[in-house]
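Service request form, structural biology core

Requester: graduate student, group of Dr. S.
Request type: structure prediction, single chain
Budget code: on file
Notes: please return the result as structure tokens.

Sequence provided:
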Amino acid sequence: MKEKMVTRRCFLRGVGIGLAALSGLSLQNGYAMTLLAEDESQSLSGKASSKVVILCYHDVGKLKTEYAMTPENLDSHFAYLQAQGYHPISLEQYIAASKGEEGLPDKPVLLSFDDGYRSLYTEIFPLLKKYNYPAMMAIVTSWPDGYTNAELGPIVTWDQLREMDQSGLVALASHSQDSHRYQTINAYGDSNQMLESFSYRNGSYETIMEFKERVSSDFHQSQVAFVKYLGHKVKALVWPFGCYNQFAREIGQQEGFEAFFGLGDGLNKLPGTNSLLNAKRVIVMNNPSVNDFAKILQNAGASFIVNAAQLDIDMIYDADSVQMEQNLNQAINRFGDSKINVVFLQTFSDPDGKGNIESVYFHTDKAPVKADVFGHVASRLGDAGFRVYAWLPTLSNQWLLKEHPEAAVVAEPAKNLGWYKRVTPFSPLISQALSELVGDLMAYSNLDGILFQDDMYLNDFEDYSPAAKKAFLEVTGRELTPETLKDKELCSQWMHMKTDALTNLTLQLIKTAKQYHPSLKTARNLYPSLITESSSQEWFAQNYQDYLRHYDYTVVMAYPYLEKQYDRPIAWLKDLASKALSDKANVKKVVFKLQTYDWNTNKWLSATELRQQQAALRDQGALHFAYYPENIFGEE
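Core staff response, request fulfilled:
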């Protein structure tokens, strides 16, 4: 369907776009080897694991859209699978192998076909019988026997579906009852898929309860239709456009669905719960020839290379909506002239750049709102082909300090308090307040990831807040005082407690965020000294190895001039990268964020200098890059 068939992450394949100042930089074709595994689940049995490619097709016949294929090319795909020793498996086999109940043949592949075109029966079913290949077909259950759409063309009938269902080759799945469409999600008229987003109507956002009632009704009606026309429920739910949230998935489980299929490049590792709850399917587009199809299979595990820029909404926001749109267009065009593919988007207002946050840019009743524009900017960026991460401060939210002054971070002596005014991560009240805030951010925004701001630290003189003292006493049985910490063992224990408190807070916020966007990627800013100086964990209560374990990406603030490395910026960067990537497994998880502006001299760095810095990092094996700040209105 034409109404935004391709949108955001649901159908995205790493568009290569980025900083105008770096337009000559190589992105290494935009892809490397696997975009970091999302929450790999534990094996459910001792059986040998399998990696399954799931292919997602649509219509077969006339090439009316980029999702259609000719029968000849589909036949050539099937012949290629046969010749190359691939083994198409059934939905039942996939579910059983995910549960660890049985193994799979070598080179397993699951074929799936979406929507409910008549060609499922007239073109695809005959080919399945010709090759004796099983397949899954996802049906929008309100479409057969009554739905008409000029773009879709004829729809498969229930009689045809019943015949295929009884053939033993086809497993039918729900593609929803009537949620294969988009809805308005904010006052700007932006839209998103119905099973992931909360609608916006008559000036109000849909509540979680209203969303759940709507989705529950849809899924129930879909299963009722299958029982009515086929005599049984179906076991799989295929998300329209690949989009969903955890609330929808839980409702799906209540309606009897066992397996859930989205979209996304990557292999599905079986056995494991993730292969059932969040199966990834590689979408087949543009009627690929057999040679192109071979490349699709070869690159099924291909991963995304991050080339990111941070965008300050402060820079583009204007109370005049026309002017703001012009500013936003300029930012999009500037990114589009280069190779940025990820945008770390500011969620908060910080016009003076001090990092002590007074208000936010998204709809919430948990904080002061400067303007409800974040969701709109995120949608515009997503529609333009960028993956959007919410760039989020946590401890430096000043309204939390005003509401909970007892939760302020305390230093001993007081003069050594850190540069951000922060609340303590040891306070349960703060954790709850931040979780609620993140819930609102996620509920009303189209997002691909979250980046935690660098306010997530505690220096070596912090934290002596009441909540921190209580935590120390509960664990050690001692009062927290500077004198107590002269004991080296207690001091070390306290350092690890602080590190864990900060990390655990982010993990709690990630858990909240993934209720709304289950495939959300996670990143956190890291100070470079955590890599270059062994004693630095004590200074910040951060740990590089913890970052690598807990987040998809560790964003290293590789700012040579902020670190006063004017005499040796290239050597400093090389040393940083060499240490960060001493374990080559880290290459896929570390993003080096370069400064594009020298805050000490108030000058923008030249494109030539940035290329030299990036080249120095690449020489040490660096793969992912980010840049901050972005000079949206600059000439270069």
